[in-house]
Amino acid sequence: MDKFTKFTSRAVSLPLNDVDTDMILPAEYLKNVSRTGFGENLFQALRTDDPDFPLNLEKYKGAEVLVAGNNFGCGSSREHAVWAVVQAGFRVIIAKSFADIFYNNGAKNGLMLVTLSAPIVDKMLLDAESGDYEVSVDLESQTVTLPSGEKESFDFDPFRRHCMLGGLDDIDYINSHKAEIDAFRQTTNPTRFSSTEGL
Amino acid sequence: MAAKNIIEKIWDAHVISQAEGHPAIFAIDLMLIHEVTSAQAFQTLADKGLEVFDKTRLIATPDHIIPTRKNRLEIYDEAAKFQVKTLRDNCERHGIAICDVDSGRQGIVHVIGPELGLTQPGMTIVCGDSHTSTHGAFGALAFGIGTSEVGHVLATGCLLQQAPKTMRVEFKGSFAKGVFAKDAILKLIADIGVGGANGHVIEYCGEVVRNMSMEERMTVCNMSIECGARGGLMAADEVTFEYIKGKHAAPKGKEWDKALEHWKQFRTAEGASYDQEFVIDISELRPMVTWGTNPGHACNITESIPTLAEVPDHEKKTTKRALDYINLQEGAPIGGTPVDWAFIGSCTNGRIEDLRIAAKVLKGNKIAAGITFYVVPGSEQVLEQAKSEGLVEIFEEAGADFRMPGCSMCLAMNDDKVPRGERCISSTNRNFMGRQGPGSRTHLASPATVAASAIAGKISSAEDYF
Predict the structure, then answer these.
(1) CA–CA distance from B290 to each of B169, B296, B332, B353, B431 (Å)?
(2) pLDDT value of residue B288
(3) Considering all CA atoms of chain A, what is the largest pairwise distance in Å, rounded to the nearest integer?
(4) Nearest residue on chain A to B129, judged by CA atoms?
(5) Candidates B199, B318, B434; nearest CB to A26
(6) Contact (CB<8Å) A31/B105
(7) Would you say residue A183 lies in a domain?
(8) In what order do the strands lie in the sheet with B165-172?
(9) Confidence at residue A172, expressed as pLDDT on a 0 to 100 scale
(10) Is B249 within 8 Å of A34 when comparing Cβ atoms?
(11) Under a CB-based contact definition with an 8 Å cutoff, are residues A111 and A55 in contact?
(12) Alpha-carbon gap: B73 to the closest alpha carbon of chain A (Å)
């Protein structure tokens, strides 16, 4: 996983709530069996159907931070949606809230998901429409610096922070507890009644 | 020690260890695998030189992309064909049981788990699919995960998890004729919103739940994710045990008695608390239908679409975009909207009871001219049952196209797509933009409402059929 420490870029304003994973990456683009090749289809339907969709606008070209409303990433569990966001060049999404599975998937792919309060995000959504709105996100200090120089702090799970800063995979952490896992499996097996053996 | 609710009890029973300030190492009892979200996880194992932790906790089936044509063995889309082949190869390589096409057991992951008796109370169940919460109907803690996490479970049988918040939803009253479990869950989602339960697992309870069949319970739990919940569950009872008994993987003989004793401990203790609680009276509930582009955009079939003036300021842009897409006017009545397509199927409403209800409405009727109506059974077992009960003839005589099992037009990954600009009344779980095909317009409803609407050619209640 790519490390994330600090990142500065212009932001795209996407003033929508409940951006779902089917918008981010429609199902017809989930056929690839590798982790690559999803970026070009990010928001494919919206970009095709709506010439004014933010990602179509010249002023946002090269911007690598996305700002959105409530409940970003709701819907399907498809991690392909996160891969598409990352492969299209975004490193950070700032929103009022995120859907759970999308949030988890982001953390596993080095995509920095920052939750800020509704009034701040509303202001950012408006101001970022200039197309020249540069923000800086610092995970170590857990702050977002706005173009005005104002700093907004954000909450972040300490373990996730440790993993993002170090580019660490969950699987290695889980496997470092192998003895406990084996012991647990031996004690709970007697109360196990479901098995796929013989199917 | 504080009294615990069922969610906390299952959570506690599966925490292997948890260091201060760290997520828990959380044991997973069963993972369901399908073709779309597993290939990259198997690749991670290969890249890291890891083997599968315990293949007896894994079950696979092709469902998302599989054709529903009669000659479905041949997949014309090369990418889809390769995706299914990759699933088969990975299962063979790791010795994982696969319920493949024509095995008699293939179907949508969330339909076959319960059918095979694999889904049992008190278990932790995951799948790279957000509708995994379906299994919560059996008193299991079941939730969707991303592909990276699928890899973690394959390799370790565990996930890193933080304890969920808990929400209690009580349904009280009784259903009016023509109103079903689907309407109740759409009502909850409309009330609390598509992000209303983010971070929570829901326990559904109350007399209404106790009186539900397992199929109805699965419909409710299935759509928990549509209000943002990680999972949704219901304590097991005699209805649950009766359903499991005799299923292929169900415990038998003395093991059955031991299992019952084990399962019965997973119930909310007297005095247990939750982070949030809601009570919904369903006595006055009428059939629900969605008018917009997420499952929270739902109203009673006799109501009108909200006006932009009625929605809160921060929702106006999203609502405007939804109405433009769905091509309906603010403030217009939703009932009577002409439809071009009808669909019954999916992990939400593709089980035998759903087909029975729809067949009851359709029997002796014809669907309206110009309507295309797909009926897709949730599994090969559902298909066989529908045949043996004579339901297939009823659907076909009414003018519907009864097809082979799979996810089909719920997410339109295979060839089953609603054409651009056309409108579909659908028993599925999501009415997102383009969900049933690029440019498609979806209205979610119960199977009864779908059948009644197909007959009328417009969004219509099935209340008069019952």
Answers:
(1) 21, 8, 13, 22, 8
(2) 98
(3) 65
(4) A77
(5) B434
(6) no
(7) yes
(8) B231-233, B200-205, B165-172, B276-281
(9) 87
(10) no
(11) no
(12) 18
Q: For the segment B141-180, what is each residue's pLDDT rounded down to a tens digit? A: 999 999 999 999 999 999 999 999 999 999 999 999 999 9
In a mutational test of the A interface, the residue from B25, B75, B86, B247 whose CB has the highest number of chain A CBs within 10 Å is B25
Nearest CA-CA partner of A93 in A81, A104, A106: A106
B457 backbone φψ class: left, alpha, beta (φ>0; ψ -120 to 50): left
Cα–Cα distance, B281 to B170 (Å, whole number): 8
Among residues A89, A138, A79, the alpha carbon closest in space to that of A109 is found at: A79
Contact B118 A27 (CB under 8 A): no
Q: Which of B357, B450, B367 is nearest to B409 (CA)?
A: B450
In a domain, A199, yes or no: no
pLDDT at A191 over 90: no
d(CA B108, CA B123): 20
R_g of chain A computed on alpha carbons: 19
DSSP strands (E only) in chain A:
6-14, 65-68, 92-95, 112-115, 134-138, 143-145, 151-153
What does DSSP say about strands A6-14 and A112-115: parallel, antiparallel, or unpaired?
Answer: unpaired
Judged by a CB distance cut-off of 8 A, whether residue B84 touches chain A is no
Instruction: Domain of residue A17: give its range.
Output: 6-189
Asked if the C-beta of B346 comes within 8 angstroms of chain A's C-beta atoms, the answer is: no
Residue of chain B whose alpha carbon sits nearest to that of A29: B413
Residue B85 in tokens: 């082949």
Nearest chain B residue to A53 by CA distance is B321
The dihedral region occupied by B91, where left means phi > 0, alpha psi between -120 and 50, and beta the remainder, is: alpha
Q: Measuring CA to CA, how many Å separate A20 from each of A24, A62, A122, B430?
A: 6, 23, 19, 10
Instruction: Return the residue matching tokens 């610096």.
Output: A145
Residue A196, domain member (yes or no): no
CATH number at residue A92: 3.20.19.10
Query: Nearest residue of A to residue B80 by CA position?
Result: A31
Residue of chain B minimizing CA distance to A105 = B146
Structural domain includes residue A29 = yes
Residue B447 has pLDDT above 90, yes or no: yes
Tally the residues of chain B: 466
At how many degrees (to 10) do helices B352-362 and B391-398 cross? 50
Cβ separation of B438 and A196 shorter than 8 Å?
A: no
Question: How does strand A6-14 pair with strand A65-68?
Answer: parallel
Read off the pLDDT of residues B24-67 as tens digits, 9 standing for 90 and up.
999 999 999 999 999 999 999 999 999 999 999 999 999 999 99
Residue A189 has pLDDT above 90, yes or no: no
How close A159 comes to chain B (CA, Å)? 6
Give chain A's domain count: 1
- Across the interface, do A159 and B21 touch by the CB < 8 Å criterion? yes
**Which residues 250-309 of B have a C-beta within 8 angstroms of A?**
250-251, 255, 258-259, 262, 294, 296
